[in-house]
Amino acid sequence: MTLPSNLDMDVLRSFVLGVQLNSFAKAAQRVGRSQSAVSLQMRKLEQQANCEVFRKNGRGLLLTDVGETLFHYAQRILELNDEAVSAVDRSDMSGRIAIGMPPDFAETWLPGVLGRFARIHPNVLVEARVDKNATLLEDLAAGQIDLVLFWGDTQADPSLPGRSLAEFPIVWVGPEDYEPDDSAPLPLVMMGAPCMFRTAGITSLDTAGMRWRLAFSSTSLSGLWAAVTAGLGVTIRTPEGIPSNLRIIRDSRLPDLGRTRLRLHTTSHPSPPVQRFISILDEHMSLNFQTANLLPRLVAVG
């Protein structure tokens, strides 16, 4: 009986990093190889998998359907490999990391990232802080937290490393039985100011010349959802994490809200635990929220 081929773990890691970072040049830097060496790895991957993983798209590469399938398996293989190594490695990293984030991430996406991180690095204590962008960025600049996730294009201290993780549409959200009342101001359910979503909504309504009133204000996302469920008004968020009893309002009378970015900033010299958390976060975003960008997996060659 012919045994199946074994996929090279180093090749898989370069492959996954290249797709996650949208650049094999960046992946080469992360794995400590030249770009030409990583290109050779990708050819080796296609030989080992006996399939066409990429197809050319201008100056970049697109994953084929089979390549997309292989990418998801590669992520799972690397995850199991990392967990196995951590389980038997007595020199595993330890310490503490403090992370600041918006309520959307804390209440919907954080458990998946934390669960994966905790399984691989059980000796690292993770402290999560949920607050507004301005407060979190101030705490980051003061060195009180190690990493910040936030909505929008607000810039932290330019000396601090940062980048965009994903881009999401901003949408109107209301109860299942929502019906607009053109004779009355639009009732809004919002987080307290300052809030990027609040600003986006009010600015769009004012620009469109639409009347509105603040019907409910909350400091928590759960309070926001409860008020909308109760019929107090409509709110504004991204499509991710909307409760099943609420819906995106697609009403041409409401102004378009555009899009927003989920950004990440760290301290100048992030510790190994922070770097590892970011790596797992990248994997989680790539696996679960690729559709948020509404784009195919285009990987830059350079």
TrEMBL record:
Keywords attached to this entry: DNA-binding, Transcription, Transcription regulation
The record's Pfam families line, in alphabetical order, gives:
HTH_1, LysR_substrate
For this protein, the record's InterPro entries field holds: LTTR, LysR_HTH_N, LysR_subst-bd, WH-like_DNA-bd_sf, WH_DNA-bd_sf
Q: Where is the HTH lysR-type domain?
A: 7-64
Record flagged with keyword NADP = no
User: SUPFAM superfamilies recorded for this chain?
Assistant: Periplasmic binding protein-like II (SSF53850), Winged helix' DNA-binding domain (SSF46785)
Show the Gene3D superfamilies listed in the entry.
Answer: Periplasmic binding protein-like II, Winged helix-like DNA-binding domain superfamily/Winged helix DNA-binding domain
UniProt-recorded name of the protein = LysR substrate-binding domain-containing protein
